[in-house]
Amino acid sequence: MTIRETRELWEKQYLSPFASLSADTKGREIHEELCDIRPEYQRDRDRIIHCKAFRRLKHKTQVFLSPEGDHYRTRLTHTLEVSQIARTIARSLLLNEDLTEAIALGHDLGHTPFGHAGEYILDQICQDGFTHYEQSVRIVELLEKDGRGLNLTWEVKDGILNHRTVGQPSTREGCIVRLADKIAYINHDIDDAIRARLFVEADLPAQYTDILGHSVRERLNTMIHDIIRNSMEKPEVIMSPGMEGAMLGLRKWMFEHVYKSDIPKAEEGKAQQLIVSLYEYYMDHVIELPEEYLLLMINQREKKERVVCDYIAGMSDRYAIEKFKELFVPRGWRD
Fold first, then answer.
1. How would you write 4-33 as a 3-class SS string?
2. Domain ranges of the chain
3. How far apart are CA 113 and CA 74, in angstroms?
4. Nearest to 60 by CA among 126, 4, 111, 11
5. Cα-based angle 169, 170, 174 (whole degrees, multiple of 5)
6. Which of 12, 76, 77, 112 has the fewest CB atoms within 10 Å of its CB?
7. How many helices, marked H, and strands, marked E, lie in the chain?
8. Which residues neighbour 305 within 8 Å (Cβ) at sequence distance 6 or greater?
9. For 73-106, b where at least 16 C-beta lie within 10 A, e where not — what string?
10. Are 250 and 218 in contact (CB under 8 A)?
């Protein structure tokens, strides 16, 4: 018996009846021989960690553009925090931790430079629209490995696509990531906003913090425990109504006082104009795209508009800025 088979047997014996077993995956679009060491979802997790799109997340904005300080979250640190929260819940509920981790690590691969400001403007200017969750799936299906994609399992791609608020994941593990994403960004964005001196902890609405907790640590602990208590040995992964209501209320408050406030949005207009300029330039000079993107049009018959959007969406913040300087700022004026 191989190491993989031993692990698959362990899953059948010890995981919850509601868990997604590695041996029962719906599989990959392109058939591959099974690994003798790793179950299928573990292979997916490893592929995501080693892909280029994952590495680029370290230089992509979470909320604050060009923050002064090393302790503000990036899209990568957000992803790691989601993964940690999701794995804790999955392990406690005896669900598949490998699948949970793979979904968590891949859920934001499609995010643009400059956070949601970049996503919004690409959705406005791209002919077919743009969403980061669909782009994340496009990355793992097509864009990675020079047009070959990562060939991930159906369950991982389903979880990535459906991690958004209105998503409906098909697995319990995907449902965990959907909740863990909100728990992570609400709390770490509060932490970053306090660091940016937008407000202090005492300014948060007591009607929510009296339920959730009066510090990041308390809120994380409270919400994670609530999910575990309300989901143990049940077919759903849910929060109690009061806890979910408080979480969504605090999320709404954050949209009003942080995500749409003047400080994080102060530079967004400039960032969006930068993206528009890059998009228009490459639409007029498509031959200057990197070879891997040109091959998408030649070999995969992808539309020019889609490929230009792919290239810009994949940029890190600083790469986009450097490209803009290279194309539009006279050499003597550059920093």
1. HHHHHHHHHHHCCCCCCCHHHCCCECCCCC
2. 42-263, 268-333
3. 11
4. 111
5. 50
6. 12
7. 18, 0
8. 126, 127, 128, 283
9. bbbbbbbebbbebbbbbbebbbbbbbbbbbbbbb
10. no
| Sign of torsion over alpha carbons 69, 75, 76, 81 | positive
Give the tens place of pLDDT for each residue, 244-273: 999 999 999 998 888 776 666 667 888 999
Q: Angle at which helices 304-313 and 115-125 pack, to 10 degrees?
A: 170
DSSP 68: S
pLDDT in tens, 127-168: 899 999 999 999 999 999 989 999 999 999 999 999 998 999
CA distances from 255 to 108, 139, 190, 213, 261 (A): 19, 28, 11, 19, 8
Cα(214)–Cα(212) distance, integer angstroms: 7
Provide the token pair at 203: 């300014």
Which H or E run includes 154? Answer: helix 154-161
* pTM, entire model: 0.95
The answer to whether the beta carbons of residues 289 and 224 sit under 8 Å apart is no
* CATH H-level superfamily of 42-263: Hypothetical protein af1432 (1.10.3210.10)
DSSP SS3 for 120: helix
